Here is the input.
Amino acid sequence: MTTAPRAATPALPDAQTVTSVTHWTDRLFSFRVTRPASLRFRSGEFVMIGLMGDPDPRTGRQKPLLRAYSIASPSWDEELEFYSIKVPDGPLTSRLQHIQPGDQIILRPKPVGTLVHDALLPGDRLWFFATGTGFAPFASLLRDPETYERFDRVIVTHTCRDVAELEYGRQLIASFKTDELMVELLGEDALAKLTYYPTTTREASPKMGRITDLLRDGTVLRDLGVDAIRADTDRAMVCGSMGLNTDLKEILEGFGLREGANSDPKHYVVEKAFVG
Ligand code: A2P
Here is the structure.
Protein backbone atom coordinates (compact mmCIF):
# COMPACT_ATOMS: atom_id res chain seq x y z
CA MET A 1 0.00 0.00 0.00
CA THR A 2 1.25 3.48 -0.80
CA THR A 3 0.41 6.53 1.20
CA ALA A 4 0.48 10.06 -0.13
CA PRO A 5 3.31 12.11 1.35
CA ARG A 6 2.04 14.52 4.00
CA ALA A 7 2.95 18.17 3.81
CA ALA A 8 4.86 19.39 6.85
CA THR A 9 2.77 22.56 6.99
CA PRO A 10 -0.75 23.06 5.68
CA ALA A 11 -0.52 24.39 2.12
CA LEU A 12 -1.77 27.94 1.58
CA PRO A 13 -4.52 28.47 -0.95
CA ASP A 14 -2.96 29.65 -4.25
CA ALA A 15 0.53 29.34 -2.72
CA GLN A 16 3.65 30.35 -4.65
CA THR A 17 7.22 29.99 -3.47
CA VAL A 18 9.59 32.94 -3.04
CA THR A 19 12.75 32.44 -5.13
CA SER A 20 14.70 35.63 -4.35
CA VAL A 21 14.46 38.86 -2.36
CA THR A 22 16.41 42.12 -2.85
CA HIS A 23 16.32 44.95 -0.33
CA TRP A 24 16.99 48.24 -2.12
CA THR A 25 16.62 50.65 0.80
CA ASP A 26 15.05 50.49 4.25
CA ARG A 27 11.75 51.44 2.52
CA LEU A 28 11.90 49.38 -0.68
CA PHE A 29 12.36 45.75 -1.69
CA SER A 30 11.66 43.50 -4.64
CA PHE A 31 11.10 39.76 -4.76
CA ARG A 32 10.49 36.98 -7.22
CA VAL A 33 8.14 34.02 -6.86
CA THR A 34 7.26 30.92 -8.85
CA ARG A 35 4.65 31.48 -11.56
CA PRO A 36 1.53 29.29 -11.70
CA ALA A 37 1.75 27.30 -14.93
CA SER A 38 -1.72 28.44 -15.98
CA LEU A 39 -1.20 32.18 -15.28
CA ARG A 40 -1.34 34.33 -18.40
CA PHE A 41 -1.24 38.12 -18.06
CA ARG A 42 -0.64 41.24 -20.10
CA SER A 43 2.47 43.23 -19.16
CA GLY A 44 1.35 46.08 -16.85
CA GLU A 45 -1.44 44.18 -15.06
CA PHE A 46 -1.74 43.52 -11.32
CA VAL A 47 -2.77 40.57 -9.15
CA MET A 48 -3.78 40.21 -5.51
CA ILE A 49 -0.98 38.84 -3.36
CA GLY A 50 -0.43 38.46 0.36
CA LEU A 51 -0.03 36.29 3.41
CA MET A 52 -2.29 34.54 5.88
CA GLY A 53 -3.49 37.00 8.54
CA ASP A 54 -3.12 36.41 12.27
CA PRO A 55 -5.59 33.90 13.75
CA ASP A 56 -8.86 35.41 14.99
CA PRO A 57 -8.52 35.39 18.83
CA ARG A 58 -12.06 33.98 19.24
CA THR A 59 -12.31 31.40 16.49
CA GLY A 60 -8.64 30.72 15.73
CA ARG A 61 -9.50 31.07 12.02
CA GLN A 62 -7.03 32.72 9.67
CA LYS A 63 -8.04 34.84 6.67
CA PRO A 64 -5.77 35.82 3.79
CA LEU A 65 -4.47 39.40 3.90
CA LEU A 66 -4.28 40.44 0.26
CA ARG A 67 -3.33 43.63 -1.60
CA ALA A 68 -3.13 44.61 -5.29
CA TYR A 69 0.43 44.42 -6.62
CA SER A 70 1.50 45.23 -10.15
CA ILE A 71 3.47 42.42 -11.71
CA ALA A 72 6.91 43.96 -12.34
CA SER A 73 8.14 41.13 -14.57
CA PRO A 74 7.18 40.90 -18.25
CA SER A 75 4.59 38.43 -19.52
CA TRP A 76 7.30 36.19 -21.05
CA ASP A 77 9.19 35.67 -17.76
CA GLU A 78 8.97 32.23 -16.15
CA GLU A 79 8.83 33.75 -12.65
CA LEU A 80 6.84 36.70 -11.27
CA GLU A 81 8.54 39.77 -9.81
CA PHE A 82 7.06 42.36 -7.45
CA TYR A 83 8.40 45.70 -6.18
CA SER A 84 7.15 46.83 -2.81
CA ILE A 85 7.31 49.52 -0.18
CA LYS A 86 7.91 48.52 3.47
CA VAL A 87 5.56 50.30 5.83
CA PRO A 88 6.50 49.61 9.47
CA ASP A 89 2.86 49.46 10.61
CA GLY A 90 1.37 48.42 7.25
CA PRO A 91 -0.81 45.34 7.87
CA LEU A 92 0.73 43.41 4.96
CA THR A 93 4.11 44.99 4.20
CA SER A 94 5.26 45.01 7.84
CA ARG A 95 5.27 41.19 7.49
CA LEU A 96 5.89 40.75 3.77
CA GLN A 97 9.22 42.60 4.03
CA HIS A 98 10.59 39.65 6.05
CA ILE A 99 9.95 36.94 3.44
CA GLN A 100 12.91 34.75 2.48
CA PRO A 101 13.57 32.40 -0.45
CA GLY A 102 11.63 29.18 0.15
CA ASP A 103 8.74 30.95 1.95
CA GLN A 104 5.27 30.88 0.48
CA ILE A 105 2.98 33.76 -0.40
CA ILE A 106 -0.61 33.73 -1.59
CA LEU A 107 -1.15 34.79 -5.20
CA ARG A 108 -4.64 34.92 -6.69
CA PRO A 109 -4.13 34.14 -10.39
CA LYS A 110 -6.60 36.73 -11.75
CA PRO A 111 -4.61 39.50 -13.46
CA VAL A 112 -6.42 42.78 -14.22
CA GLY A 113 -5.55 46.45 -14.77
CA THR A 114 -5.64 49.45 -17.06
CA LEU A 115 -1.90 50.01 -17.66
CA VAL A 116 -1.96 47.82 -20.76
CA HIS A 117 -1.34 48.50 -24.42
CA ASP A 118 -4.92 47.50 -25.23
CA ALA A 119 -6.21 50.59 -23.37
CA LEU A 120 -4.27 53.02 -25.59
CA LEU A 121 -4.82 54.06 -29.20
CA PRO A 122 -1.81 53.74 -31.50
CA GLY A 123 0.55 56.73 -31.32
CA ASP A 124 4.14 57.86 -31.92
CA ARG A 125 5.42 58.48 -28.41
CA LEU A 126 4.68 56.60 -25.18
CA TRP A 127 5.25 58.19 -21.76
CA PHE A 128 5.48 56.22 -18.52
CA PHE A 129 5.12 58.51 -15.48
CA ALA A 130 5.97 56.83 -12.13
CA THR A 131 6.65 57.83 -8.55
CA GLY A 132 8.08 55.43 -5.97
CA THR A 133 6.88 51.82 -6.37
CA GLY A 134 4.61 53.03 -9.17
CA PHE A 135 7.57 52.04 -11.36
CA ALA A 136 6.53 48.35 -11.05
CA PRO A 137 4.10 48.03 -13.98
CA PHE A 138 6.61 49.88 -16.18
CA ALA A 139 9.35 47.43 -15.15
CA SER A 140 7.08 44.89 -16.83
CA LEU A 141 6.16 46.94 -19.90
CA LEU A 142 9.76 48.12 -20.46
CA ARG A 143 10.85 44.47 -20.77
CA ASP A 144 8.10 43.68 -23.28
CA PRO A 145 9.19 43.94 -26.94
CA GLU A 146 5.62 44.95 -27.86
CA THR A 147 6.20 48.33 -26.20
CA TYR A 148 8.91 49.18 -28.75
CA GLU A 149 7.03 47.63 -31.66
CA ARG A 150 4.09 49.94 -31.02
CA PHE A 151 5.95 53.23 -30.51
CA ASP A 152 8.82 55.20 -32.08
CA ARG A 153 9.87 56.69 -28.77
CA VAL A 154 9.37 55.46 -25.18
CA ILE A 155 10.05 57.91 -22.33
CA VAL A 156 10.03 56.70 -18.72
CA THR A 157 10.08 59.25 -15.91
CA HIS A 158 10.57 58.17 -12.30
CA THR A 159 10.38 60.58 -9.37
CA CYS A 160 11.56 59.47 -5.94
CA ARG A 161 12.53 61.18 -2.71
CA ASP A 162 16.22 60.30 -3.00
CA VAL A 163 18.78 58.74 -5.33
CA ALA A 164 18.80 55.33 -3.60
CA GLU A 165 15.08 54.94 -4.30
CA LEU A 166 15.74 55.23 -8.04
CA GLU A 167 18.15 52.28 -7.99
CA TYR A 168 15.73 49.45 -8.84
CA GLY A 169 14.63 51.25 -12.00
CA ARG A 170 18.09 52.50 -12.87
CA GLN A 171 19.63 49.02 -12.67
CA LEU A 172 16.79 47.47 -14.61
CA ILE A 173 17.19 49.93 -17.49
CA ALA A 174 21.00 49.61 -17.38
CA SER A 175 20.59 45.82 -17.72
CA PHE A 176 18.98 46.30 -21.15
CA LYS A 177 22.48 47.08 -22.44
CA THR A 178 24.43 44.50 -20.42
CA ASP A 179 22.16 41.51 -19.82
CA GLU A 180 22.56 39.12 -22.75
CA LEU A 181 18.96 37.95 -22.68
CA MET A 182 17.62 41.51 -22.63
CA VAL A 183 19.99 42.68 -25.37
CA GLU A 184 18.89 39.79 -27.56
CA LEU A 185 15.21 40.19 -26.77
CA LEU A 186 14.86 43.96 -27.12
CA GLY A 187 17.58 44.63 -29.69
CA GLU A 188 19.42 47.87 -30.38
CA ASP A 189 16.49 49.43 -32.21
CA ALA A 190 14.31 49.20 -29.12
CA LEU A 191 17.02 50.64 -26.89
CA ALA A 192 17.52 53.55 -29.26
CA LYS A 193 13.83 54.43 -28.70
CA LEU A 194 14.10 54.47 -24.92
CA THR A 195 14.74 57.57 -22.78
CA TYR A 196 15.04 57.34 -18.99
CA TYR A 197 14.29 60.54 -17.04
CA PRO A 198 14.82 60.09 -13.27
CA THR A 199 14.19 62.94 -10.82
CA THR A 200 14.52 63.36 -7.05
CA THR A 201 12.71 65.71 -4.71
CA ARG A 202 14.55 65.47 -1.38
CA GLU A 203 18.17 64.79 -2.31
CA ALA A 204 20.43 66.48 -4.82
CA SER A 205 20.69 64.67 -8.18
CA PRO A 206 21.26 65.75 -11.79
CA LYS A 207 17.53 66.46 -12.18
CA MET A 208 15.55 67.65 -9.21
CA GLY A 209 11.83 68.30 -8.78
CA ARG A 210 8.43 66.67 -9.06
CA ILE A 211 7.72 65.53 -12.62
CA THR A 212 4.46 67.48 -12.48
CA ASP A 213 6.30 70.78 -11.87
CA LEU A 214 8.91 69.93 -14.52
CA LEU A 215 6.13 69.28 -17.03
CA ARG A 216 4.21 72.43 -16.17
CA ASP A 217 7.22 74.74 -16.55
CA GLY A 218 8.36 73.13 -19.79
CA THR A 219 11.61 71.66 -18.39
CA VAL A 220 10.83 68.06 -19.44
CA LEU A 221 9.97 69.02 -23.01
CA ARG A 222 13.08 71.19 -23.31
CA ASP A 223 15.34 68.49 -21.82
CA LEU A 224 13.96 65.81 -24.12
CA GLY A 225 13.68 67.88 -27.28
CA VAL A 226 9.92 67.31 -27.51
CA ASP A 227 7.90 70.25 -29.00
CA ALA A 228 4.63 69.45 -27.26
CA ILE A 229 2.54 66.63 -25.82
CA ARG A 230 -0.44 66.23 -28.15
CA ALA A 231 -3.42 63.90 -28.49
CA ASP A 232 -2.53 62.90 -32.05
CA THR A 233 1.02 61.78 -31.21
CA ASP A 234 1.42 61.10 -27.47
CA ARG A 235 0.19 58.29 -25.23
CA ALA A 236 0.80 58.05 -21.49
CA MET A 237 0.55 55.65 -18.58
CA VAL A 238 0.62 57.02 -15.03
CA CYS A 239 1.28 55.09 -11.82
CA GLY A 240 2.00 56.58 -8.42
CA SER A 241 0.42 58.18 -5.38
CA MET A 242 -3.12 59.56 -5.47
CA GLY A 243 -1.64 63.09 -5.61
CA LEU A 244 0.54 62.30 -8.61
CA ASN A 245 -2.30 60.60 -10.43
CA THR A 246 -4.70 63.51 -9.90
CA ASP A 247 -2.12 66.15 -10.82
CA LEU A 248 -0.90 64.35 -13.94
CA LYS A 249 -4.44 63.70 -15.13
CA GLU A 250 -5.06 67.43 -15.02
CA ILE A 251 -1.82 68.15 -16.89
CA LEU A 252 -2.50 65.53 -19.58
CA GLU A 253 -6.12 66.67 -20.00
CA GLY A 254 -4.72 70.20 -20.37
CA PHE A 255 -2.63 68.92 -23.30
CA GLY A 256 -5.86 67.56 -24.83
CA LEU A 257 -5.32 63.88 -23.96
CA ARG A 258 -8.32 61.79 -22.83
CA GLU A 259 -8.39 58.84 -20.42
CA GLY A 260 -8.78 55.36 -21.94
CA ALA A 261 -9.85 51.96 -20.66
CA ASN A 262 -9.59 48.36 -21.84
CA SER A 263 -13.03 48.61 -23.45
CA ASP A 264 -12.47 52.16 -24.75
CA PRO A 265 -8.84 52.84 -25.70
CA LYS A 266 -7.81 56.51 -25.74
CA HIS A 267 -4.68 58.60 -25.04
CA TYR A 268 -3.69 57.89 -21.43
CA VAL A 269 -4.39 55.52 -18.53
CA VAL A 270 -3.83 55.79 -14.77
CA GLU A 271 -3.42 53.35 -11.89
CA LYS A 272 -2.73 53.93 -8.21
CA ALA A 273 0.42 52.33 -6.81
CA PHE A 274 -0.39 50.29 -3.73
CA VAL A 275 0.81 51.97 -0.53
CA GLY A 276 1.14 50.18 2.82
P1 A2P B 1 7.88 64.97 -2.51
O1 A2P B 1 9.19 64.58 -1.90
O2 A2P B 1 7.85 66.40 -2.95
O3 A2P B 1 6.69 64.60 -1.67
P2 A2P B 1 6.53 58.82 -1.73
O4 A2P B 1 7.82 58.14 -1.44
O5 A2P B 1 6.00 59.67 -0.62
O6 A2P B 1 5.48 57.90 -2.31
O7 A2P B 1 6.83 59.88 -2.90
C1 A2P B 1 7.50 59.47 -4.08
C2 A2P B 1 7.81 60.69 -4.89
O8 A2P B 1 6.59 61.22 -5.43
C3 A2P B 1 8.44 61.81 -4.08
O9 A2P B 1 9.54 62.29 -4.80
C4 A2P B 1 7.33 62.83 -3.97
O10 A2P B 1 7.77 64.17 -3.90
C5 A2P B 1 6.60 62.63 -5.27
N1 A2P B 1 5.22 63.11 -5.23
C6 A2P B 1 4.35 63.05 -4.21
N2 A2P B 1 3.17 63.61 -4.53
C7 A2P B 1 3.30 64.06 -5.79
C8 A2P B 1 2.45 64.76 -6.70
N3 A2P B 1 1.20 65.13 -6.35
N4 A2P B 1 2.94 65.06 -7.92
C9 A2P B 1 4.19 64.72 -8.26
N5 A2P B 1 5.04 64.07 -7.47
C10 A2P B 1 4.62 63.75 -6.24
Q: What stands out?
A: The two ends are 50 Å apart (CA to CA). The mean pLDDT is 94. The chain has eight helices and eleven strands.
